[in-house]
Amino acid sequence: KVIWFFSKTMTKRLTRSELFAGAQATGSSVQIPSSHLDLENQNDEKIEGLTSKVKILKEITLNIGETIKESSSIIGSMAIFLTVL
Question: Domain of life, per the record (predicted)?
Fold first, then answer.
């Protein structure tokens, strides 16, 4: 997951690891509860699962499109053949 960080002088793309780097260090740093990190990990896993499903659907859609093109070509050829007879 990528989050965009905007400031007056620059725009930087931050990854999750950059955002949470040092978050569990002792001292004045903010500590993130492990349950929060567990939820983040679960979310990441679900995002990966959804991403793979979208890729599969895209492949299916492209295959359907190719099948339609091939079928249209065959039907067109048959129509030409039948008009010649």
Answer: Eukaryota
Given a contact cutoff of 8 angstroms between Cβ atoms, the answer to whether 78 and 85 are in contact is: no
- Which residues does residue 4 pair with via DSSP β-bridges, in sequence order? 13
**DSSP string of 32-45, one letter each residue:** PPHHHHHHHHHHHH
Regarding pTM above 0.85, the answer is no
**Each residue of 19-70: pLDDT tens digit?**
666 655 555 555 666 788 888 889 999 999 999 999 999 999 999 999 999 9
How far is CA 37 from each of CA 1, 17, 29, 51, 67, rounded to the nearest angstrom? 14, 11, 16, 21, 45
Instruction: State how far the Cα of 32 lies from the Cα of 11, in Å rounded to an integer.
Output: 25
